Amino acid sequence: MSLILLAEQVLNGLQLGVMLFVMAAGLTLVFGVMGLINLAHGSLFMVGAFAAAAVAAATGSFAFALVAALAAAAAAGALIEVAVIRRLYARDHLDQVLATFALILIFSEGTRWVFGSFPLFLNIPDYLSGPVSLPGGIQYPLYRLFLIAVGVLIACGLFALIAKTRLGIQIRAGENDREMIAALGVDITRLYTIVFALGAGLAGLAGALVGAIQSVQVGMGEPVLILAFVVIVIGGIGSIKGALVGAILVGLTDTLGGVLLPQLFRLFMENSTASAAGSALSSMLIYILMAVVLIWRPTGLFGART
Amino acid sequence: MNREHILNTAVTLTLVLFPLLALWLDEPFLITLATKAVIFALAGVGLNIALGIGGLVSLGHAAFFGLGGYAMGILASHAQSYTPILSAPFVLEGTKSMLVIWLVAVAASGLAALAIGALSLRTTGVYFIMITLAFGQMFYYFAISWPAYGGEDGLPIYVRNSFPGLNTLDPLQFYAICAAWLFAVLWIAARLACAPFGLALGAARQSPARVETVGLSPYRLRLMAFVISGMITGLAGALFADLNRFVSPTMFSWQLSGEIIVFILIGGTARLFGPVVGAIVFVTLEHVLGGLSDYWHIYLGALLLMIVLFARGGLIGLLAGREKTHD
Question: Is the CB of B305 less than 8 angstroms away from the CB of A103?
């Protein structure tokens, strides 16, 4: 296996990692601030992708599509926060799981009802398609580089938001002691809606960005949601830094494992058995990673020690 | 006898009389539908031991349901193709006997529950939910990418497995087997809830620190409950595979884990008959609403939301009033 192929796979892993981070950041924020487990986060990812596909089909502009994805998912997030999620903060996790599971059913079937069962396609615009040459003779799709760049930008933006802005201070204060900041005069209800809508908007943006390299269809959110859970468990719930490290780890493990394991097995097995065993094992690799992290640190790499 | 007992008796009578009514009406399809409800109820009763008494919200119980299903699928597929499962170091043949299949299904899902539980129970709360979900998903992806037993397409079994003295292909007789299991497991669950183990497990949910102070280990109590719960759900999976004569990775899907929790919620958490009522309502809704509209999940979702937000005791809570013991 050549070094060039390996470098490409590392880039693919990074691309998956940063997109998982954008997804996981919202989940971990919502859990950190409101103590809520939101299964419907994957539905917001799907809402973003569908909004982007619909707007791109109507206007032909990819930039508009991304804005629409962000806006639609943030609006959907704010709507369900006000209508449903708000009533769940004081409830136990079982009620939260069930209510957000119900939301998934409503979102998925509602989307199927509006857009039909056939997948939609979101095309990569001309100015972002085609390969680019990287140093070392690597030909790599421009769009995937664009995804990595957007992911890194969002990560920097989020860290700046949390560390430097007034909203970020309120979010951090809300994670530590929500009664205290309410007593200090911060409108906690509004803060919760903003944080939820922010997380939802990020999920929607991730959905639109990823939607361009796969098909846009009902149910596309849940596999990503579960990967995002793995990311958060590895990184530690409530920690943005943990989400970033966890996401990159999961992205690299999943991508490299899928390529390297069958090759490794080929060294001492015949070809077809090796690819079968390799692909079966590599599909389990990130969960094994999660188990190892759990044995080592039950609250994740950057989780609060309790 | 309080109202919950009357309700439980009514549900039991319905389970006994409904298939006879269906037979009298000459509607064998209704018996199959009832069998499905009974099997789902069995899976729910299994999960309810961990969730209702122990407070362990496992979102990965489809792993055990699927393992039970694949235990049946693998054993029966080798038996129908007359190939041994293992030829070296010793010969291991497949089988079409339900008794052996149940034993293997329960053992396999029990072992898996031991491994998953030992890891997941190191954490609590929302971590536990996410981790069980992730491990469940691990089995799903493994089943999809492992080509030996059908991979993504699943594995059909042509003839239902055999039980001594019964014709399992007759809907009523197969229903009787499943219902007998449900009643047996309900009896076990009822005994378990009043036994020292069940009481300690309930106490570990309400106040782990106190349980530890009197010298019991909450971790071991929960692990035990998780294993028992996984074994029962695995058995339900084996029966479900036999009902459909087909196993596929969808038996491992996380939606199924969610649905098993939904059965418990519709009926009422920690109620003995909660999953039974929930599974009956779910299968009925699926049949009735599914016939009216292709998008029946929207109505199911709305109904669930209403129950979570406004009717916290589930249907049994609505009909029979508050639980006598509460935390």
Answer: yes
pLDDT in tens, A182-215: 888 888 889 899 999 999 999 999 999 999 888 8
Please indicate if any CB of chain B lies within 8 Å of the CB of A196: no
* DSSP for residue B50: I
Domain boundaries, chain A: 3-296
Q: From residue A196, how far is each of A28, A32, A188, A201, B300 by CA, in Å? A: 11, 11, 12, 9, 25
Domain A3-296 fold is ABC transporter involved in vitamin B12 uptake, BtuC (1.10.3470)
Residue B305 to residue A84, Cβ atoms within 8 A? yes
Confidence band of B323 (pLDDT split at 50, 70, 90):
low
Rounded to the nearest integer, the mean pLDDT of chain A is 89
Parallel, antiparallel, or unpaired: how do β-strands B155-156 and A138-141 relate?
Answer: unpaired
Q: Which pLDDT belongs to residue A305?
A: 54
CB contact B143 to A (< 8 Å): no
Please tell me the distance in Å from A164's CA to the nearest CA on chain B. 29
pLDDT at B326: 44
ipTM: 0.86
CA distance B143 to chain A (A): 8
Average pLDDT over residues B235-248: 94
Q: Which CATH architecture has domain B3-320?
A: Orthogonal Bundle (1.10)
Q: Which helix (H) or strand (E) covers residue B155, if one does? A: strand B155-156
CB distance from A291 to chain B under 8 Å? yes
